[in-house]
Design brief:
Elements: H1 2-13, H2 17-40, H3 48-55, H4 62-94, H5 98-102, H6 108-141, H7 148-167, H8 170-178, H9 183-201, H10 212-217, H11 229-252
Helix pairs in contact: 1-6, 2-3, 2-4, 2-6, 4-6, 4-7, 4-8, 4-9, 6-7, 6-11, 8-9, 8-11
């Protein structure tokens, strides 16, 4: 496992994807900060962007800003985390390195486990980044209602949202493996995101795993009920099933190309 994890870290370090994902989360924090800047003084409304800020339902204070960051992670984060999972597994087939990788004296289980460990660590580092950058932007905007308790609750919700979102990307690893590349997994990712939005709008999001992170983050509004234990258990079940199914496929599949 140590050697497999080192190899995955080396591949990630030599790729541009870590920088692109960090840039994407930085832009998310900046956009949320811009929304707070506009909401703090409606006279600053900038056309359509001002309308979007008003429709977001956020309030220009620390609780509202941290909730908006969590919502950005819960929805947009699925795309970023999904691309990480797809890249980690799909690149082996697109670059035609799968057979070479499996010829090494390292078990297939260790190889898959290293990829999932890297994906989880990567996801949480991005969540910490957006939380830290968000706190800096909020301080520069001098948002009201700051307290240590509010900050801990808001950042804690953001990190839990990130963990739930990352768990839901494990089936994309299986899709990238089954499809032996990126295309099938990217299609599955957009299909899951579309279904999450539609089912949440219909009021059944509490029982659809891919809708749970956004609802937990408060995307439906602060007065709406948050997902219950069943929703969280469904997310855990999807995450565990994705890991186990991907591992089983790599162990048993005929990697002839």
């Amino acid at each position: 496992m140590r050697e497999a994890l080192w190899a995955e870290l080396l591949k990630a370090r030599r790729s541009r994807l870590p920088w692109l994902t960090a840039l994407a989360f930085t832009l998310a924090a900046l956009v949320c900060g811009l929304f707070m800047f506009i909401l703090a003084d409606p006279a600053r409304a900038l056309g359509l962007l001002g309308g979007k800020a008003q429709l977001s339902g956020a309030v220009a204070d620390w609780p509202g800003y941290l909730a908006l960051l969590a919502q950005a992670v819960g929805v947009g984060g699925f795309l970023i985390y999904g691309m990480i999972a797809i890249w980690l597994f799909g690149r082996e087939f697109s670059d035609h390195t799968a057979k070479d990788l499996l010829a090494l004296p390292t078990s297939r289980t260790a190889i898959v486990g290293a990829k999932f460990i890297l994906a989880a660590g990567w996801a949480m580092l991005l969540a910490v980044q957006v939380a830290a950058f968000g706190v800096l932007i909020g301080a520069l905007l001098t948002l009201p209602d700051w307290s240590a308790q509010i900050a801990l609750e808001g950042i804690g919700r953001l990190l839990v949202t990130a963990a739930l979102t990352a768990l839901l990307t494990t089936p994309l690893s299986l899709a990238a493996s089954l499809g032996r590349g990126y295309l099938a997994a990217v299609g599955a990712m957009f299909a899951a995101l579309f279904c999450a939005q539609v089912i949440a709008a219909l009021g059944f999001g509490h029982h659809f795993p891919w809708s749970v992170p956004g609802l937990y983050a408060g995307i439906a509004g602060p007065d709406q009920d948050r997902p219950g234990p069943i929703g969280f258990l469904l997310v855990l079940a999807v995450g565990a099933t994705g890991v186990l199914a991907t591992t089983a496929w790599w162990r048993r599949a005929d990697h002839h190309r």
